[in-house]
Amino acid sequence: MNRTIGIALIIIGAVMIIWTGFSYTKKEKIVDAGPIQISADKEKTVNWPPYLGGILLIGGIVIVATAKKR
User: Fold this and answer.
1) For every residue of 17-56, which 3-state class applies, written as one string?
2) pLDDT digits 0-9 by tens, 32-70
3) Distance in angstroms (rounded) separating the CA atoms of residues 55 and 50
4) Are 13 and 20 in contact (CB under 8 A)?
5) 57 and 41 in contact (C-beta within 8 Å)?
6) What is the pTM of this model?
7) Residues 13, 19, 20, 23, CA torsion sign
8) Any idea what the Cα angle at residue 34 is, between residues 33 and 35, rounded to 5°?
9) Of 44, 55, 60, 63, which has the fewest beta carbons less than 10 angstroms from its beta carbon?
10) How many CB atoms lie within 10 A of CB 13?
11) Which residues, in sequence order, are CB contacts of 70 under 8 Å at separation 6+?
């Protein structure tokens, strides 16, 4: 169990170091006046600091290294 969590943290940490965020498009209503509706696509960005990925990566390595073998 601990080994699986450690491996998952290593993978997530490595991905967070490589990709520091992502963008997505969301449709937002600008004008809603009865039968007239105007909407626009807005691009949203989600970012996280690369050091967070490093912390997860190191934590995963420590968990895997200290996990008891059966």
Assistant:
1) HHCCEEEEEEEEEEEEECCEEEEEEEEEEEECCHHHHHHH
2) 888 888 899 999 999 999 899 999 999 999 999 998 776
3) 9
4) no
5) no
6) 0.69
7) negative
8) 110
9) 44
10) 20
11) none
